[in-house]
Sequence to fold (480 residues):
Amino acid sequence: MKAPKKRKPSASRKRSEAKVGLERLRHVAPESLRPSPENDRLYRPVLPTDKAVIELADSVRENGVFEPIVATADGFIVSGHRRRVAAMVAGLATVPVRYLDKRRGEYLGEEFVALLREHNRHRVKSVSEAIRESIVDADPEAAYIDLLGHRDHVEEDLLTAVNLSGSIQRKRISGAKSAMVAAILKVIEEHRAYLPINDRKIHYELAQHHRPLRHTAKPDSQYAADQRSYRDLCDLLTRMRAEGIIPHHLISDETRPEKVWRCWPNVEAFLRDEVSEFARVFWRDLVQTQEVHVEVAVEKNTAVKIIESVAMRYTIPVTSLRGMPSMPTKHRIAERFKATGKSRLVLLLATDFDPTGEAIAENLAKSLRDEFDIENLLAYKIAVTPDQAADLGALESVEGINLKAGDSKAKRFRERHGEDVVAYELEALSVADLQRLTAEAIDAVLDTNLLNAEREQEKLDAAEVAKARQRLLLAMSEEA
Fold:
């Protein structure tokens, strides 16, 4: 009987063996392996605190290292930098390693960088890592220098340096401010669900509901709704943050917006975040069956978050006016209404009870009617109304009531409400009062039976969405 013919290795296998030049598998301590410095030229440095490394460590701890690490004859890692760190995090005594027949120093020029790239082509990489690989193929040194540079280089001699001589030294908070500090902390605690909070809201809370002594040794220093108290508060809030009494993120400043770009370190992190949030947030339109379309408009940013917490239970839009409404704001409200196909718009407004607040409410309603052709429009005040101002008690605004003799808005305000009229700030309303007034206004203009039916259907929808999410995620994982 003839001996079976020995199969010749394929051409691809020959090339693979020539390229790899591997010895037999050995198990060594992961600490004995040395990371290759060139790896950072192609890929992100591997840190034990990286989320991906921690997740890999959990898997390695339970299942071990499946894919052996590849290293040079003298222990420099060619493939497996993440596996090594994950094994160390997991506390593994040894890891499987296949050694090449050459030492690291035997690779000439950029041969070792090319070897790293070749052995890591199979793994999932970020876009930036893939780009770096192609850069190395073209001109490694020039590409690496370019990689580290800014996209738009700015010559240093074109910039003007900021003078940093001297230092900022703030006066320490003394015991004389203890009552005011305690009142501020109480206001922040009362508004825990609506943080951050701004200086103005704290001012009105102190003046309306707490009235602490601004100086404990001066009985006549009780906090009031005036500029002196407000300036004292702003200074104290600055010092409380500087001294670490309250965290910086609890106090907001809506007048100075900023833009921070949402970024990811790599494609893997982006996809992980996107998948974790996939189909998690579902909102049913709870007012789609109502005969009217309802919009809420709020004069002050400080009140928006409180009113939003109520309006979102009805899925009713809320607009922050920040003073007299602009044409783009009016246009967006009008477009939302027209898109519903409904015949009537109901506008609910929350403004100060003062000449400007009343003018804002009237301007928005009249403009939507006359300039945007919404003839069937009803407008109501959520707050603050004359009756509410009388019941709650008048409180002067930080800027003053502004009932100047030559002010046309003030003149109309007096004509309607009398010469002795006093103003009331929307921000002076307590959270509980403003929430209650908002809910009462919305309930008054909606059909409760239709609303409750939509809420019951939303419960059924939520269960259906959860099941669909699981099916889709399973299908996506099978495709991957």
Remarks:
- The longest helix spans residues 448-479.
- The longest strand covers residues 22-28.
